[in-house]
Amino acid sequence: MNYTGFELIWLFFVYSFFGWVMETVMGTVKQRKFVNRGFFTGPFCFVYGIAAVLMTVILWELEESWFFLFLGCTILGTVTEWLTGKLLERMNRHKWWDYSKKKWNFDGYICLQYSLLWGVLGTICVKFANEWLTALFGFLPELAEEILCGVLIVIGLIDLSVSLAAVFRFKLNREMPAVYRWNRSLGAVARRMGLGIVGCVQRRMEKAYPVLKEAGQQLSSEGRFAEGCGFYKLFWIFFLGSLLGDLVETIFCRITTGVWMSRSSLVWGPFSIVWGMALVLATVLLYKDREKPDRYLFFIGTFLGGAYEYICSVLSELVFGKVFWDYSKIPFNLGGRVNLLYCFFWGIAAVLWIKLVYPRLSSLIEKLPVIGGKLVTWVLVVFMAANMICSGLALIRYDTRSQGKEPEYAWERVMDTYYGDEVMERIYPNALDV
């Protein structure tokens, strides 16, 4: 993968535009009138841009195999579509699209024919379109490339802000009585942003997605700490899940290899952020499906867990230049990044988490005192943020040091002093140079 940051930004917006064209054409043909089907008001459908860039960054090593590239694009596109649908539903408590009437659908968000379409489109993009589009982008002078990407980013951020304001206005209108709705701070902020613009976007969304006008479920408010599935609950799940994940992996390595080995992702304390983020994602995406059969949760956990682990492996290699795990010696592996057995473990973990562990852990978290719980939460947020920043810098310097590069900046000298090779090898014993 040899694309620059500006080229990836260019590909993101181009594919977002192409996706918007496809969605708009299909919606217009279906409803026999022009319909802007994008979440955004501008001519962008960012789910296509996100999927295309992820395929470009993550699946580059599968380019030589048509079958595995098609399979990877099918899986990655399907996962992206499902995650987007779930997150939008969490924002507004309604499905923005529904494939329930189509054959071979799953959860109403994905279906076989569209998954295969993701595979075809993704393969075309990775094999051919990326090269053509970057060549076209390369005709521009370097300064023009930077200006164009900067303008596109600004337009995208403005569009995102207005679209999110419209969505939260839907939510606000449902959850707050009209008598005092606009006396709240969010209403004041919305007015300052321009209620006319937000209202226009809101009406556009209502036409494209009529379900948004339907009344949503009311949120319960019993005054407990971290009730529901909001920020405080999710942070504690991330924190405790990272701690629990490191403990589980350490014990598993002890049983299987006979040695105690650090499995931490961070330089301060026994935390595996891969596990923490996995449990947060599982909670966000499967929280509403906790009453569904175990086989449903197992299938989702197996599918998403494998995709999640593969993405983490590729991104950590690209960012830090290290391979943190290698399953090449385990049967049914894909590039040494994932294997079928551990994918099944992800499925089992999803069932155990949603059905058994999460309800009990959630209840314990909600027993914390409100004021004390919030204070401790923010102290831990600062600690974990600093921990991840320091760990990232230490890993980056660990990689450049292995390449024989002398420290140029003060932070590199600090990393050399406190996190030399001996310390890093103890914390990350399985890290291998790419």
Keywords summarizing the entry:
single chain, 434 residues, 2 domains, mainly alpha, 6 strands, two-stranded antiparallel sheet, 13 helices
Structural topology:
Elements: H1 5-31, H2 46-58, H3 66-92, E1 105-106, E2 110-111, H4 112-138, H5 142-175, H6 185-208, H7 231-257, H8 273-286, H9 294-320, E3 322-323, E4 333-334, E5 338-339, H10 340-366, H11 370-402, H12 410-418, H13 421-427, E6 432-433
Antiparallel strand pairs: 1-2, 3-6, 4-5
Helix pairs in contact: 1-2, 1-4, 1-5, 2-3, 2-4, 3-4, 5-6, 7-8, 7-11, 8-9, 8-10, 9-10, 11-12
> What overall form do the CA principal axes indicate?
globular
DSSP, total strands: 6
Radius of gyration: 23 Å
The number of distinct helices, counting runs of at least 4 residues, comes to 13
Largest sheet: 2 strands, antiparallel
Number of domains: 2
The amount of helix comes to 55-70%
Distance between the termini: 14 Å
Please give the order of strands in the largest beta sheet.
1-2
**SS-derived structural category:** mainly alpha
Q: SSE order, as H and E?
A: HHHEEHHHHHHEEEHHHHE
Unreliable segments of 5+ consecutive residues: 174-187, 215-222
Query: How would you state the average pLDDT, rounded?
Result: 80
Walkthrough of the structure:
There is one protein chain. With 434 residues, the protein is an all-alpha fold. It has two domains: 5-213, no CATH class; 231-433, no CATH class. It is built from 13 helices and six strands. It has helices at residues 5-31, 46-58, 66-92, 112-138, 142-175, 185-208, 231-257, 273-286, 294-320, 340-366, 370-402, 410-418, 421-427, and strands at residues 105-106, 110-111, 322-323, 333-334, 338-339, 432-433. The protein has a two-stranded antiparallel sheet with strand order 1-2. The chain has a two-stranded antiparallel ribbon with strand order 3-6. Helix 1 (5-31) crosses helix 2 and helix 2 packs across helix 4. It is globular, with a radius of gyration of 23 Å. The model is unreliable at 174-187 and 215-222 (pLDDT under 50).
